[in-house]
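2024-03-11 09:14:02 DEBUG pipeline.ingest accepted 1 chain
2024-03-11 09:14:02 DEBUG pipeline.ingest length=463
2024-03-11 09:14:03 DEBUG pipeline.predict start
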Amino acid sequence: MKKMISFLLSAVMGTAALTVPPAVADDGAKNDGGIVIFGDSIAAGYGLDKDKEYNYGQIIADYLDCDVQNYAHSGDTTEKLLAKIDSLDADQKKAVADSDYIIVSIGGNDLMGYASKKILEFSAERGLLNPGFTADNIPEKPGISDLLVMANLKGDGGLMDYAQDSLLNAMELQNLLKKDITNALIGKTDQHNGYIQTDIMPNIETAVSELRALNPDARIIVQTVYQPVQFDPEYVEATYSSSSNYDNVKLLLSTLRTNFKKIMDMFRDELNTMDDIEVADVYYQFTSVPDGEKQNEANPGYSYLLTSMQNDFSNMDFHPNQKGHLVIASTILEKIGDLHADDGLLTKVFLNMEPYKYGVKYPLLATDTYKRVAGNIMEGDIDFNGVVDGCDATLALREFGMIAGGFKTTLSDIQQECADTNKDGTVDGSDATNILRYYAMSSSGYEGTFEDFMKQIAANSKS
């Protein structure tokens, strides 16, 4: 339980204080204009293997066949973004002025910084700061690094021990998360100033205004903040069910999930009221829970597939992995809307990840977004690996069995369209048979497409 509480608090606090050098401009400019990116560690590509993985700015630039200048830096807040814009040199200002698209990823560190101050104040009141620190040492606007240095989070007699000493202490921690952090971030009341509304959004509006002054014509796209504390229920059960505090673990997860959702919903709603920007809803794509469905213990959301949160404890990381960067790229490209069949980096990354094969999960809403953007959908190719083969027939039969047994579909909307080979509105054994017949013929030298094959079947049935 100590490990879980420690991890959950780390998730609340974030690790954005870890710094990496600012990403440099990518080479190979082709079209005039291009993309300029501002923001935090997410936009900078923190955590990626730079030798073989691609951040979403690189993927977008390749798709649009243009240059990208990435000025994002780990740890940047909305205030630091304003300072960054004010300090742009002549070449950087020209890059902004010449760009077609300005993409902004910001706000997550503001949220985590606010939470850090509340946790530090809580710790100070209960004597849980490290030796040498008192409430007088808490900065007006602490960063994550201040929290990690000042608060005794994991040591003996620290916050972890305090949370487990009694049910009352655990409830105090729960109230800290619900009332002092969540309500203060989202609620503009007599007790709370609504930090998102009164601090974060005004800074973003100012940043947009300053960027617009540099470039009156560019499309400015601001992405939402995703919720990282979503775990596969099977992972939670396998990891923590043997603990005597398993019910407390599930309660903490539920509390964080519910309150994080409120925060991210408010952030997204406020962005959508802002003039002169377009919103790329990364939050929705990462969660991948359709409208009308509730998030709960059995359906927590799917961001765990797009981050490294389910790595071993020492390597947990909420930053996007390669799949996560592909999702962000696809989301922004769909917002841009200049879609075409892709045979470049977007498709290469997707296929190298083997994103949907039997037993390998990938968020369905994100999959559909990718396929709309990639524009290379092939009838019968249910696993999107570029060929129609026996694996696709297996998926069609599996889908038929799931539906016939009264279970929920495991295929995305686009995958169901690819699987419904005869377009009768259902996926059944006949679709699997069509796929197998085509696979057998193509293996024997047939060079037609699957669409050609289905047209022959339709013609033969009429005759």
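2024-03-11 09:14:41 DEBUG pipeline.report The CA atoms of residues 240 and 302 lie 19 Å apart.
2024-03-11 09:14:41 DEBUG pipeline.predict end
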